[in-house]
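[09:14] KT: can someone run the structure on this one? pasting the chain below
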Amino acid sequence: MSLENDSMSIGRMIALRLRGLSDLARLVSGTMTMGHPTYIVHFTERGKHVYGVFIVFRDYYKQYGIPMFYYAVTDKELPGDYILFRSDEGGEYVEPYKGVKPGWVAIPVVHLREKPTLIGDLEVE
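[09:31] RB: done, structure tokens below
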């Protein structure tokens, strides 16, 4: 489906780059612990690895919602298909992993073949 055609125009998402993977894991684990099933997508962009989550900022003024893509960039692909997150009195812990561990929030990573067209240009440098 094209982003532009005669009957409908689909805008691009607002992309917000986070400081790092820990911020992304904190954001996603927060939504998961409130009962919202969430996953992280992964794709490459100009030789970098992008990990992100699609979120709709609902009821923004007169809009039904604004689609947003929060993302972090790494130089190398993370091992495994999960990002584990845990927080306690000692701090926050983020760990890429092949599966799940008791006591951790396990965030699934879905590997995409290419960047979705809806995202548009990203800052990856």
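[09:33] KT: thanks! Confidence is low (pLDDT under 50) at residues 1-7.
[09:34] RB: yep, looked fine to me
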